[in-house]
Each structure stands twice: as C-alpha cells, then as structure tokens.
Amino acid sequence: MENVLTKEQLFEFIRKNNIQSVSNIYESLKDLFKDLLQSFLEAEIEETLGYEKYDVKNKQTTNFRNGYTQKTVKTKFGEMEIDIPRDREGEFESKIIPKYKRDISEIEDKIIALYSRGMTTRDIHEQIKDIYGIEVSAEMVSKITEKIIPEIREWQNRPLEKIYPFIFMDAIHYKIKDKGKIVNKAAYVVLGINIEGYKDVLGIWIGESESSKFWLGVLNDLKTRGVEEVLLFCVDGLAGLKEAIEAVFPKSDIQRCIIHQLRNSFKYVSYKHIKEFSRDFKKVYQATNEEEAFENFCQIKEKWGKQYPYAFRSWESNWDLLTSFFKFPPEIRRIIYTTNIIEGVHRQFRKVTKSKSVFPNDIALEKMLYLATKNVVRKWTQRYRNWDMILNQLLIMYPERLRDYIK
C-alpha cells in the first residue's frame, strides 16, 4: 500500500519549516532529500563494516569508520554538500553516490518516470534495487514524487490562450479515501484545440461525483485563466451542463457526444438488437445534413420505437444539442461529433491507474494523472490534419469572433 503523508503530518511539516511560499517548499524538500541521502550513506557503510556506529561489542572486523569526505553533488533540487563516510582500510564505496559521480539526478527522474507509468511505491522500490542496487523505501518514493506538487499547482494555474475553437469536457471516476471512508470522486478533464490546431490538456480538477455545479466552477476557472472565446464545447449528456456553459460562455455552441448518447440508448435495448440498432443510427449521425438526419431518425423510430420507446426520448428532447455539428463542414464534423479525443486521454489514465483500486487521497490521484498527462501531451507534436482548411472555414462562419485572434 502506498505511503502518503497524512494532513496532520503535512501541517506539522509546514509548521516546523515555516512554509509560506513555493520556494520555501523547495528548500524544505531539498533539506529533506539531503537528510535521506545521508541516511542511505550511513546505512551503506554500516553494511560494509557489519556493525552499527558506536556498536563496538558486535564489531567483527579490524576495519573502522574514519570520518567523512565532503562532496558536492547535483540533484533535481540543485547542488548540495554531502558527507561521504570513509573507512580506515578503504573498502567502502557508495552505490548511491559512486566515487567519481557528481550528478545523481537521474535516480529521481527514474523514480518519477516509473511512478508516472502506474507502478506502486513497492514496485518502484524493487525496480530501483534491481537497476541500481540501491534500497529506496516506499516512504522515500512518496517523498520524491511529492516534490512535483508545486509543479502541478503551477501547471493547473498557468495562463491559457484567449481563444480555443473547440473544447472537450468529460470526467473519469476513481475511488478515493476521504475521512476514513472510500468514496467515488471524479477527475474533471478539459482538453482544448487552439487557433493553430494543436491539442492540449487545459486542466484536471478532482471533485465529488460529476455534477454541473462543479463544471460551472471549472468553466469559471478557464475564464479566470484567460480564455475569452470558445466556438464550440463538446460534452457528454450530464444534466445541467448546457446551462453551466451558457452562464460562462453564452456565445458558444454546444455539441453533445453522439457516442455517449448511443450508449445511453443502449441501456433500453436488448443485447441481441444492439448491433443492428447501432448500425441503423449511423444513418442519423452520418447523414449529409440535419434534414436528412431527422428523416432517418423518424424511420428508425418507426422501426424500433414501439419495442424500445425510452431509447428515443433523450434524442428527441436534446435534438438541437445532438445535431450542432451539422452546421459545420465534414472536416470539422469528424473532430466534434464525439468526445473520443478526450476518451483517448482517459484510456491512457486507466493504463497507469489500473494497479490502484483505491487512492489514499486526492493528491495521490493528482500526481499520477498529471504525470500521465505529461506523457500524453509530449506526443502531441503535430496539428490537426488540414487545419489550414478548417481555420478558413471557421473564419467564414465566425468572422467577427475570430478576427481579433488571428495574427
């Protein structure tokens, strides 16, 4: 099980170290990491000599400690002075800080990289031991990964671009310990496509089970961070989400995800009919225009409506939100008719979190999702195909709203 500091321990850490800023956190973590390194070195020479410091009774060697040599090493916290233990006969050689090595930052990088791929602290302990021959406790892994918390806060609060033609919003759910109980919480994920056609994850918020009220706070956060204009939001069918979007970005169009809508309809359809039902509905969302889509919808309802009336009610009551994409040309429709783009991110999240049935707290989940996001975004180096054509079409459709944002 992962070892994470409790709130009480964190408060005590803050009080003892007089934490008042992010720089204070870095300095305190630097001191903590230095102490851990020094503890490792003491453990190493103890293993070499076979007895603890001052434990002369159990000494079974003629060799003994012979003071320290000061060495400057480079870590992710910057340079620090470390006292390397010496022995009289020169047998001791540290594994964690080898004789001629002055840069040990890659060990921290390795720990964080393993953590970002979903390995538990126990697994990381074994991996580092196998690779480097170093005993890295689960507690130390937790402390090293905690150093990215200021980085997460900086990323989550970073200024955003003024305009995103398309924004996708969806939530993924996890079990988290909260006040001694295991509760379901949602990671609210927002992905944007900017004016140059590049994707980016704009933020991840951990909150109670998905609600339009929480989404309203997320939308206000986007606006506070600099987002002025969104042409279209692509979302699931959560009740109240349309009203939340309209309250913050009243000019924006809204497209409900067709795939989410189909899945919702499948709840009312017998398993033996789902494939045929789904195949029929392709005639709706793959139609040439909204008029044709509605005609095909009526035909499908005539075929299945008496047998599965509830499968069609949500389509009828939300038709305007489900067909917003028909006002766009085919190149844009393929991007916006579904939130599959953000579900692809969720699939990567599930890969790295599958070993965690329950997270000990929100921060543990935040750390893992943030590191997974960094790995995903790093691969997004190319803009959308035919983006120049798409942008020209958007300029024709929204000339006044886009003019000020085109350089």
**Averaged pLDDT:** 84
Please provide the count of β strands. Answer: 7
Number of helices: 18
Share of β-strand residues: 15-25%
Helix content: 40-55%
Overall number of structural domains: 3
The largest β sheet comes out as: 5 strands, mixed
Low-confidence segments: 1-5
Shape: elongated
Radius of gyration: 28 Å
What class do helices, strands and sheet pairing give? Answer: alpha/beta
Strand order of the largest sheet: 5-4-3-6-7
Q: What string gives the helices and strands in order? A: HHEEHHHHEEEHEHEHHHHHHHHHH
Separation of the first and last Cα atoms:
52 Å
Explain this structure.
- The protein is α/β, with parallel strands linked by helices.
- The protein folds into three domains: 105 residues, no CATH class; 42 residues, no CATH class; 246 residues.
- Helices cover 49% and strands 17% of the residues.
- It contains 18 helices and seven strands.
- A five-stranded mixed beta sheet has the order 5-4-3-6-7, with helices on both faces. It has a two-stranded antiparallel sheet with strand order 1-2.
- β3 and β4 form a beta hairpin.
- α4 packs across α5, α7 packs parallel to α8 and α9 runs antiparallel to α12.
- The longest helix has 28 residues.
- It is elongated, with a radius of gyration of 28 Å.
- 26% of the residues are buried.
